[in-house]
Structures are given as C-alpha cells and as structure tokens.
Design brief:
alpha+beta; 6 helices; globular; binds adenosine-5'-triphosphate
C-alpha cells in the first residue's frame, strides 16, 4: 500500500459447494462453512451456532427434501444434490442451503417449534427453531415439487483479517 493511501477495509468473500444429498455430507458441509468463516475469528459460541444451523438446514434438505417417497417418485436415486452458497460481507455471514426436492406445503407451519412430518424417524421438529435461535436472520422459500431455499445471516462480533493486513 502506498503511503497516504486510505486503508481498504471492506471484506468480501464468497464460496459455493454442490454435493450429493447423502448424510455423510452433513458433517462435510458443517466443517466447510466453519473453515470458511475462520478468518473472521469467530468466537467458540459463534462457531458452534453456525455449525448447528448449517447442519440443520443441510439435514433437512437430505432427509425431507429428498425423502424416500420423492426419490421413488422421481426415480432419481443418487442424483440429488444440495447447493451451499456462503458469502461474507464485512462482518456478516450469509448462508444459503438449496435443494430441488419435494418442497414444503405450509412454510409457516413447518417453522413452528416441534412440528415435524417425520415423527417415525424420531425427528423432534426443532431444526428451524434452532436455525432461528442461532442465526440473526432466517428466510425460507419453497415450492412444492420444486424445492426449498433456506437463507440465514449472522453478524460476527469480531473482525481481523484481510483488510487490516493490507
Ligand atoms: N428442505 C426441506 N424440504 C422439504 N421439507 C422440509 C425441508 N426442511 C424442512 N421441511 C419440513 O419442515 C418440517 C420441520 O423441519 P424442522 O427441521 O424444524 O424439524 P424436523 O426436521 O422434522 O426435526 P428435527 O430437525 O428436529 O430433527 C419437517 O418435518 C419437514 O416436513
Ligand atoms: Mg430438521
């Protein structure tokens, strides 16, 4: 940086991942997002909140979006993907988890704590409630038969990193 030049503090970073909708990838997605936010120096609590929220959204895409009934009807076993898109703008992390699965009929109802359509799989209906509690913003868009998009935002308390190095 030349002397006298104003320091560039704006931080922007973006990444996208596409992976198969299989349960081993829940951990993969959680760790990938955690690694992506590491340069922002999140606290242990922020780290844990982000990992939980990502894990819940990705698990939902895999077990609900592409459930057995959907896979059977579509005849698309092994071809279903989850799309993860993360962006850091300054100290805010944005995460989008998208599937092209069966979609949600009634989003408001689905987001109620304890509501689940899969009690037989021991689901407790708390996934959206956790996403809401652990992130600062949660938006869900869905179309039955087309898929679901979950968008979350979290403001991180600490900033270090790129801007300061330059
Ligand atoms: N990606 C998705 N595609 C289709 N349906 C979904 C999706 N995500 C959530 N749902 C629906 O919303 C309901 C509530 O989701 P939520 O994550 O809150 O609870 P759960 O997954 O049923 O249980 P838990 O997350 O506690 O194991 C689900 O039971 C399901 O019917
Ligand atoms: Mg869930």
């Amino acid at each position: 940086m030349e002397t006298g030049q104003k320091m560039q503090c704006r931080i922007k970073n973006e990444m996208q991942l596409t992976f198969d909708a299989i349960s081993v990838n829940e951990a993969f997605a959680r760790i990938a997002v955690a690694a992506f936010v590491t340069p922002l120096n999140p606290t242990v609590e922020e780290f844990s909140d982000i990992k939980t929220a990502v894990s819940e959204a990705v698990t939902n895409a895999i077990i609900h979006g592409y459930d057995e009934e959907f896979v059977k009807a579509e005849g698309a076993e092994g071809e279903n993907k989850v799309y993860l898109h993360c962006m850091i703008v300054d100290d805010v992390l944005q995460v989008e988890v998208r599937d092209t699965g069966k979609g949600i009929d009634d989003i408001e109802r689905a987001m109620e704590p304890l509501f689940t359509t899969k009690p037989e799989l021991d689901r407790s209906g708390m996934g959206f409630a956790f996403m809401e509690a652990f992130m600062d913003d949660l938006e869900v868009q869905s179309e039955p038969g087309k898929g679901t998009i979950v968008q979350m935002k979290k403001k991180l308390g600490t900033m270090s990193w790129i801007g300061k190095e330059e």
